[in-house]
Structure to design on (92 residues):
């Protein structure tokens, strides 16, 4: 229930607020897409924490790059996955 609310808020941001600004995310996938996937895979609380951590990392002093949602909970950048992991065991 809470996870769907968080995803709904992020999708609202993607649809109505994000188009008003130039693309500036330093990571792939974008921070909003990352948060949605993190909530789907790890649940509302852990996914929200992971998404907030990702947004805080997305700043001018960061190199950025590919950062997929890890299959295990972590607040650090995922540097080991060069391709998107298989999330078939998640909470989707």
């Amino acid at each position: 229930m809470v996870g769907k609310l968080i995803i709904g808020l992020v999708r609202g941001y993607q649809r109505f607020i994000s188009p008003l600004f130039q693309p500036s995310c330093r990571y792939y996938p974008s921070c909003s897409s990352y948060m949605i996937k993190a909530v789907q895979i790890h649940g509302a609380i852990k996914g929200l924490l992971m998404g907030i951590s990702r947004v805080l990392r997305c700043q001018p002093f960061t190199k950025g790059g590919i950062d997929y949602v890890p299959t295990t909970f972590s607040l650090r950048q995922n540097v080991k996955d060069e391709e998107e992991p298989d999330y078939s065991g998640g909470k989707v």
User: Anything to note?
Assistant: DSSP finds three helices and two strands in the chain. The longest helix spans residues 2-17. The mean pLDDT is 91.
